[in-house]
Design brief:
The complex is a heterodimer of chains A (424) and B (102).
Chain A lengths: L5 H16 L11 E5 L3 H13 L4 E5 L4 E3 L4 H5 L9 E3 L1 H5 L4 E3 L3 E5 L4 E4 L4 E3 L2 E4 L3 E3 L23 H12 L5 E6 L9 H16 L4 E6 L7 H11 L4 E4 L7 E5 L4 E4 L3 E2 L3 E4 L3 E3 L17 E2 L4 E2 L5 E3 L13 H20 L8 E10 L2 E12 L2 E4 L5 E2 L6 H23 L1
Parallel strand pairs in A: 1-2, 1-9, 2-5, 9-21, 11-12, 11-17, 12-13
Antiparallel strand pairs in A: 3-4, 6-7, 7-8, 10-18, 14-15, 15-16, 19-20, 22-23, 23-24, 23-25
Chain B lengths: L1 H18 L6 H14 L17 H13 L7 H5 L4 H12 L5
Helix pairs in contact in B: 2-5, 3-5
The chains are: A alpha/beta (424), B mainly alpha (102).
């Protein structure tokens, strides 16, 4: 062993000092690498909160798109209350303010044992922990006649962007007196109140611009979220214009025929001027890779860490997972991402995982000045999530108009604040 | 050599503090992470949802307790506050009241 000279000592000290002022480069070991797949409300939040909690982490956010168009408020875009730019967000702050490495590619395969993700550009990424928040994909063919090509004629608009604009153009082009059909799928699917908010805002558009038109909401279900608020509001705001048909009353759509322009239930055939088909969905492909969904189409997790119940070292969150009773909402994804980020940091340090705080609040607009909400706070007991008694519920059914007006203002404010939390 | 060991010891002990970017009560921070989804980053809200930045710890505690008891009118906070116990309310109130840059 060589003798330490003064120069050695000084060199070591200056090296250590550098290590201290550059906490992104740990001096004793290579930094831990976390790869986050999906740059939506779940993934982007997780990447940001990972770096906030531990700036020594190397965080890579994998997202094919250079901008993110949110599903929240895309219903307002559909009917001309907002433009697409107002629901479009960049990753600039995540890169520049938080030092997150953005890779614009799609994850195509996983190697859970080798801790590697394969990308569609041929590269591979190695991780110490992987977070998957890729959202949903439409289950093409699950509804007879409805595939990607069919969605160019009958848009789903359940992933915001070109589909949103396509449906908007169709609504704008429709003549007064036309029939609009919206179809809602069985549970589970992304954004449980989404079809009902959409029906509400399209009804508002028709009432304002094309009052002789009719909107039919064909539902596979007999009950839906916030039903006790939506239905009385529809009766008051859109009488004779918006009709909801439950599954047991013939609302279940069994087939669409794009060449004929028809939508079929067991009992009836409709030929709408505009058809918005919200089809059955499942976890996006990468969340079903390597058996992560156990063949079920959705993934299950341990709710203290959001680590997969199938593969250790892989965490899942957002719309791709079943986290009952938490709904598939932007708020849930954002909240789960923060719990997951804290757990990942603790696990990488070999520290104890904190007791999670899980929460959800979903606002819906029944009209531009008429907002309603559902909310809950959850605790984890064992490996199950449960709502705290008294916390779970909807806005009061008999509230005065001022309350609806205030919740509509809160809906707008919520959007500004959650997107600031995720993207800035 | 002894000096070097001392330096190493001090630096090693100090290092964990570097990565602990979020100080204060971990429970308060975890709760606050849920609040900011609606109330905005660090409690600075854009629009109609109230900001938390001008509230003292006592203000937040009093408000959450009143929401929980439904003695103060609200829209969504009656429900949210019922999900919090007394320790949660104290932790989150302290967290927001002690954020830097207020």
């Amino acid at each position: 062993m060589s003798v330490l000279t003064r120069r050695h000592v000084l060199g070591l000290i200056s090296g250590l000092t550098l290590a201290c002022v550059r906490p992104d480069r740990a001096w004793t070991q290579t930094p831990s690498r976390v790869v986050v797949v999906g740059g939506g409300f779940g993934g982007a939040t997780c990447a940001k909160y990972l770096r906030r909690a531990d700036p020594s982490l190397e965080v890579t956010l994998l997202e094919p798109h250079r901008q993110f168009v949110t599903c929240p408020f895309s219903n307002a875009v559909l009917v001309g209350l907002r433009d697409l730019a107002s629901v479009t967000h960049t990753y600039d702050d995540l890169r520049q303010r938080y030092g997150i490495r953005l890779v614009h590619a799609t994850a195509t395969a996983l190697d859970p044992a080798g801790h590697q993700v394969t990308l569609d550009d041929g590269n591979t990424l190695t991780y110490d922990r992987l977070v998957l928040s890729p959202g949903v994909e439409m289950q093409w063919g699950a509804l007879e006649g409805y595939d990607a090509a069919a969605s160019e004629r009958f848009p789903h608009a359940w992933q915001a962007g070109p589909q949103t604009l396509l449906l908007r153009r169709q609504l704008e082009a429709m003549e007064d007196g036309g029939l609009v059909v919206i179809t809602a799928p069985d549970n589970p699917y992304r954004c449980p109140p989404g079809p009902y908010e959409r029906a509400s805002l399209i009804a508002h558009y028709l009432k304002t611009h094309k009052p002789r038109s009719k909107l039919l909401l064909l539902d596979a279900k007999d009950t839906f979220t916030k039903q006790a608020l939506f239905r009385p509001a529809w009766a008051r705001l859109y009488p004779g214009l918006l009709e909801w048909v439950s599954g047991s009353q013939g609302g279940r759509v069994v087939r669409v025929d794009v060449p004929a322009g028809t939508v079929h239930t067991d009992f009836d055939e409709y030929k709408p001027a505009v058809a918005n088909i919200i089809p059955p969905q499942r976890a996006a492909a990468i969340a079903r890779a390597a058996g992560l969904d156990d063949g079920k189409g959705w993934c299950s997790v341990h709710p203290r860490t959001f680590e997969s119940t199938v593969h250790a070292g892989i965490h899942l969150l957002g719309d791709a997972i079943i986290a009952t009773p938490m709904p598939k909402s932007a708020f849930s994804a954002n909240n789960q991402a923060k719990v997951c980020a804290a757990a990942v940091v603790a696990l990488l340090r070999g520290a104890a995982v904190a007791e999670p705080i899980l929460m959800n609040t979903c606002y819906s607009l029944v009209a531009p000045d008429y907002g309603i909400s559902i909310a809950a706070v959850y605790r984890v007991a064992g490996d199950k999530i449960a709502a705290v008694e008294g916390s779970e519920g909807i806005s009061p059914v008999d509230a005065p108009d001022e309350v609806r007006q205030r919740e509509a203002e809160y809906t707008q404010s919520w959007y500004a604040n959650i997107t600031a939390d995720v993207f800035t | 050599m002894r000096t070097l060991m001392r330096v190493l010891l001090i630096v090693t002990l100090w290092l964990p503090g570097i990565v602990a970017a979020e100080t204060g009560s971990a429970r308060g921070a975890a709760l606050a992470h849920a609040c900011v989804t609606c109330h905005g980053p660090e409690g600075r809200s854009q629009g109609a949802i109230p900001s938390l930045t001008t509230l003292s710890s006592a203000d937040i505690t009093t408000a959450l307790q009143a929401f929980r008891a439904e003695t103060r009118p609200s829209t969504v906070m009656h429900r949210i506050a019922k999900g919090l116990d007394d320790a949660d309310i104290t932790a989150v109130a302290t967290y927001f009241a002690t954020l830097p840059g207020r």
